[in-house]
Fold this protein.
Amino acid sequence: MAVERERRRAGGRGRLGMALVWLLLIVAIIYTLFPIFWLILTSLKTPRDIFALPPKLFFAPTLDNYRYNFAQNRFGLYFFNSVVISLSAMAISLVVGSLGAYGFLRFRFRGGATLFFLVLATRMAPHVALIIPLFVMLNAAGITDTRTGLILVYAALNVPLVMWIMSGFLEELPWELEDAARIDGCSYFGALWRVILPMARAGLAAVAVFTFIANWNEFLMALVLTSTEAPRTMPVALALFNTEFGVRWDYLSAAGVTLMLPTLAFTFLMQKYIVRGLTFGAVKS
Amino acid sequence: MTQPFPVKRRRTNWAGIALVTPALLMVGAIIVLPLGASLAASLTDYELTSGRASWVGLGNYFALLVGDGGDAGTFRAALGHTLRFSLASLAIEFVLGFTLALLLNRVVRLSGPARTLLVLPIMVAPTVSALQWRWILDPDNGILNYVGVRLGLLSSPQLWLIQPQAAFWTLVLVDVWQTTPFVLLFLLAGLQSLPAEPYEAARVDGASSYQIFLRLTLPLLRPVILSVLLLRFMDAFRIFDIAYVLTRGGPAYATDMVSLYTYRVGLQWFAIGKSSASAVLTLLIIGACAAVLLLGLGRRGEETG
């Protein structure tokens, strides 16, 4: 750590260098935050304030746009759909994926390593290559345009990610404890439930947030696999909102913020895991 | 990830099979089977409206790559836009992300909060990113036109999404805003994992910061840089959400992308065979990148381990 500090200080070239570094960083931070800030600000304005020129920085904030969205624009339904679909799919992929990761890690199969690798590799499959067959399959099963259909698809799409992250976490657990539990007479699943699960909790939490956000933000599948309002999720509602009612920036901005806020909160909390989750392990973090 | 498991493993039994079967079934049914179906459909002239399908071999691929030509609205035009979009985004994101990573790596105090603020866009839904920028670029009430005209940078308010060039660069801009944080985080993780010894040696030898960067940091980071470029290219090539919300390929197909083309031909024109061929070509391009990435990672794993 001391070496690290030393290296950085030597590279910083004193106070002037540091000031320049910070100046550039602050410009970058403003550029990063401005669109978010501006959308939030707009969502708190009345239509009259929104269309005022010059744009108003100071105004009497109101939650009317949010209220209207939930009461009149059926955003209550879309929000509910997004929550139910994202959470259910997350739960399924978490259970299926982490059990799968554990199975591949703890048991020898013929060709197990190759199979595991192939499952992980499916994470890179472009979704656009799946949409038409999935549409036809779900149609044949009678679950297009339902929450159930989307839940199944989202759950499966996240299984490789869950397996990838969980196998990383599981590898680092002290496995002697599980063996000890087995010797004490626990069954496979007893040992898994009482010994491994409590230790893997941090990993599970990270994966849970990750898959939740992936589901929450997903657009293409939801656009293709739903058509009516009943199972519509928020990203689709947001995209269709544009065309159906013309551009109503008051409602639209509030809808956008509703969709964005949970993900911003999670990004704060989950930074440590972001690189690992998004990169298929190309960098160990 | 191809390294052998360090955990002591049991020979398989019913419990092992019970554990992995659900995962294999789900991935098989929802990812692998549809990929196979797309591949099969791409060799037919299947149309959803008529329901008839007959074998056409590589006819669809021939049509996409040669027969249809390269005019607006064709696959080749979309492919051209997608490649241009991917490379432009990649170049800008890499320069910005690398610069910011190097800057953050120099900061000792407050680097945590600065990083947190810089990475916020990373998990914002692409549909919302697109929406934010659409509002900023709004012709009548957008703040960009207002400030631009006020400061004399624009002669008149611009219709950003109606002009082909401006619309294209708007897509690049939104993608850069959304994904530069990813490049930043990735390269920062790489920078922070570099060994300290070579740097001390270089400094003792009197090397300048510039020399150290060029001769030491860049070569040491090469695998990380290649990984991030490949990962980002694969992502950028798949662009759908942002383009759908901002331009839908318009004006007049000027920002049409391969994913939009696949979607349109398959789900609006119901030409499943052709759309599937387009999807398979996407899969091949992404798959080639993935193979390079994974092989590179595997080799690196062998070298270090």
User: Anything to note?
Assistant: Confidence is low (pLDDT under 50) at residues 1-5 of chain B. Chain B touches chain A through 110 residues (CB under 8 Å). Residues 40 and 191 of chain B are 45 Å apart (CA to CA).
